Amino acid sequence: MADKYTDFVSGGFGKTLAKKLGLPQPVRLKRFKPGQPLVASPVLVLGPSGCADTNAVAELLLDGLGSGEQIDVRRQAITSGGVRWGAIVVVLTSLSTPADLSESVRTLGSQLRSLAPSGRVLFVTRPADSSAIPAVAAARQGVLGTMRSLGKELRSGATANALEIADDTPVTSTSVLSALRFFLSPKSAFVDGQVVRVKRDAGTAPANWNQPLAGKVAVVTGAAQGIGAAIAKTLARDGAKVVAVDIPAAGDSLARVANEIKGTALQLDVTADDAGARIIEHAVGRHGGLDIVVHNAGITRDKLLANMDDARWDSVIAVNIESQLRMNEAFLASEHFKDAPRIVSLASTSGIAGNRGQTNYGASKAGVVAMVAATSPLLEAVDGTANAVAPGFIETKMTAKIPLATREVARRLNSLQQGGQPVDVAETIAFLASPASGGISGITIRVCGQNLVGA
Ligand code: NAD
Known about the structure:
alpha/beta, Rossmann fold, 2 domains, seven-stranded parallel sheet, six-stranded parallel sheet, 16 helices, 13 strands, binds nicotinamide-adenine-dinucleotide, SDR_fam, EC 1.1.1.100, 3-oxoacyl-[acyl-carrier-protein] reductase (NADPH) activity
C-alpha cells in the first residue's frame, strides 16, 4: 500500500518543503533482507562502570549473538564525530536508586547525534514490580520512563525499546539472545517504545539462526491476504511448514499464498465448533505435528455503540475472541501440542487505548490481551508460550478503506510518522514463535511505531 507523502518528503523538493513548513518528515525505514547482516553495527554498550551484566551483554554481541556474525562492539563513547552507531545498548540492571540513572543516560544523550538512521537504542533492565525496595522500583521504572520519552525524541527512523529481564534470569539467557537479535535488527523496524519482559530462563537456541523454525509446523488463520499472508510467508522464510487457513470464499487467494510458500491450504471458518479439531487433524495428518498457532483471522464491523446492531457486535466477538478461546481449548487438550508449543494472537492498539466506533472490536481485542496472559501459565509445563501482537496503523486493504483525511492523521500520529507494513507485524510474530523465545510469555507487544495518542 502506497504512502505517497513519505515518498514525496524523502528527497529533493519535497524534503526541503517539509522542512521549511515544519511538516512531518517520515523516512523510509530499513527492513530486513535475508543475507544482510542482522545487527547494524557498530554497537555501543553502555552501563555503570564495573557492572558484570554490561560485560556479559558486550560478550554476547562480540560472540555474534549466537550465530558467529561479525559485530563491531565498542565500550567507549565518542567525543567527536566519525562514528555512526547502528545501535546503543544501555545495561541498567544494577540500579539502587534513581540517581544511579544519570551516568549512563547522560552518556547516552551525548551519543544520540551519532546514531545512524534507523538506529536502535535498547535499554536492558529488571522489572520494577519485582522489587520490594521503593528506591530500586523507582529506578527501574525510571528506565522505562526515559525510554518512552526518548522514543518520541528520536528521528530518522531510530527507535527506543526496553528488555526487562526477571531478577533470577541471567542476561545471557537464550531468550535474551533472541530478543537482542530482534531488537537490534531491521526486523523490529516499526516496534517503538515497547517493553518486552523475559520472565524466565527458558528457550532453545536453534541449530541455524537463519532458519529458527526449521522442522516446525505452523498454522496461520486469515492467511489469504494482508497481515496473515505476510505472517505465513515470514514463518516459511524462517523454515516452518505452514498451514494457511481462511474462509472458503477466500479460497483462490489462500491457495496462491499456500503454493508460494510450499505449504498447504485449509478452508475453514474459525468460528466453527470443530475448528480446533480440524486444524489439528490437517496439521498432524499432512505434516506430522503442530507447533505454532497464529490466530490472525479478524474482522471489523465499526459503528458507534448508540447505532450498534446485534449482528455487528456478535460477529466481531465471535471471530476475534470466542473462536480463539475455543480453538485454544482444543490445542491445549491435544497430545500433539506438547513440545514447546507457541500461540501468538493478533490484538490491536484499539483493544488497549480504545477507538471511536470500535466498542465491539475494542472488547474483542482487549480480550485477546487478557487471554494470552491467562493462557501463558497453562503452557509452562510443556515449555510453551502464549503472546499477542497489537498492531497500530498498518498499511493494508483494511486501512486503505479509511477516508483520506482520517487515514492521513492516523498514519502520522506515531513517533515514526508513518504506517507500518504487514511484514513488521509478521517479524514480531516470528520472533515470539521462535524456539529461542521460550522465556517470553503472556505479553502483548505493540507494533505501532509508538502511537502518540492513547496507548
Ligand atoms: P484483512 O481483512 O486484510 O484479513 C483478514 C483475513 O481473515 C481475511 O483473509 C479474512 O477472509 C480472514 N477471516 C475473516 N473471518 C474469518 C473466519 N471466520 N475464519 C477464517 N478466516 C477469516 O485484515 P488485516 O488487516 O490483514 O488484519 C489481520 C489481523 O490484524 C486482524 O486480526 C486484525 O484485527 C488485526 N489488526 C490489523 C490492523 C491493521 O492496521 N490492518 C491493526 C490492528 C489489528
